[in-house]
Design brief:
The chain is an alpha+beta fold and 84 residues long. It has one domain. Helices cover 48% and strands 30% of the residues. It contains 4 helices and 3 strands, in the order βααββαα. The chain has a 3-stranded antiparallel beta sheet. A hairpin with a 2-residue loop joins strand 2 and strand 3. Helix 3 runs antiparallel to helix 4.
Length: 84
């Protein structure tokens, strides 16, 4: 199953900065796509991370260890996977 994780840009940046470049999850994070959406009178900027369910679980486990603020975004995506 595919998972689409959306994370606010600031949270994503902090997560990437805390992730060691040799971690395999680092590659997943650095392949994310930048998006921006209009919300009311401004734009919200976020990152989209496309991965499979196992990769999303690994990202969640890493976030639990190094950046717990990212966990809710990842868990939200895990609970609503997309069909391949």
């Amino acid at each position: 199953m595919e998972v689409l994780i959306e994370m606010p840009l600031e949270r994503y940046d902090t997560f990437v900065n805390k992730c060691h470049p040799l971690f395999r999850e680092y590659h997943l994070l650095t392949n994310a796509s930048f998006i921006r959406r209009r919300k009311d009178d401004h734009f919200e900027r976020a990152m989209q991370i496309f991965c499979d369910l196992d990769q999303a679980r690994r990202l969640r486990d890493l976030a639990i260890q190094i950046y717990p603020a990212a966990v809710p975004d990842i868990e939200k995506a895990i609970s609503a996977p997309r069909d391949s």
